[in-house]
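One chain is below:
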Amino acid sequence: MLTDRQIEDAYEIIRERIDQVNTDYLQKVGAQIRAIGKLNPSSINRLAQMRVYGANIRKIKEELAKALDMSVQDVQQLLEQAAKEEYSSADFLAVEHGRHIVPLEYNYALRQYIQSLAAQTAGSFLNYSNTTNIDAAYREVVSEAIDAVSRGVTDYNSAIRSSMRKLGGDGLRVTYESGVTRRLDTAIRMNILDGTKQIAQEAQRQIGEQIGADGVELSAHPYSALDHEPAQGRQYSLAEYQKMQSGQGFQDVDGNQFAAFQRPIGQWNCHHFPSYIILGVSPRRYTDAQLQQWRKANHEGCEIDGKHYTTYQASQLMRTLETKVRQQKDIANLAKASGDDVLRREAQANVRDLRVKYAEVARKAGLRQRTDKMIVESYTKSR
């Protein structure tokens, strides 16, 4: 299966592309805010023109659509690679059990599944392009700036600073049918993770059928999420695995009982995956001692600000801090473009504080820092 690093590296290419659009978006909004601030209440006609100005919005939408279209191609290649990775590991399995596996290029059912998922991804990305908050967010902050000038406020930047913080922190966001909103980069990351996991699981399922598999073994890794940790690295019959995936209680081949999962394996940011096996023939890859050692190390964790964190929880705190750093850098870029030096310095100070906290969490938890995840286009540290 593709490693987490391979998936993350592919995502970073797309994130950088979207980040460029987001930065351009914020700079255009900032330039508009700066231009409005130079007007006075008597400039009624000019202020009215600013309120209906739409060229910037159209330009950003075009850039976003182009970036997402390029990203669809990247994701399609990643899905194809995910299937190839499963087949490369399956060759050994087939030889081990004296079975023949239909080559990927002739596995029309799997290829159709890949094409269907790729089309679904393309549809999701098109939907992202159509449901981003560009229009509403742009018009909201511009209208507030115009209203501030019309009222003749004495401190223009202070009057709109709260809205500027929100706009910079939100960046480009998508809205789902449920009404839930997410940053665009986060939505794309979830799409990529879920897509590659779905391909891997379907490839494994079809390979399992071809070798006569009657069970699965869950992958295992240190610092697992707590809900899936007890069940990782164990073997299950196909019937029990179906129970696991459908939200029912289940048991492994040794009779160990497990409570129902609230989220299925391989979905909602889960990094586990099943490998199809022949029960009683395929040896376990992980010993009970190894699993117990990983669990102990995870739960020992560390203390941060007087609160105990498992190592997994500390890793999730680092992901949160990475996002917050990018948000503050976006706010700094927006403030710089709008000419609000107070907000720019505030955001830059927040970046420094967050990075100190990030390094502290990494050091205490013994985790690697990923400073590449905090890069934002055009951000500078200048005061």
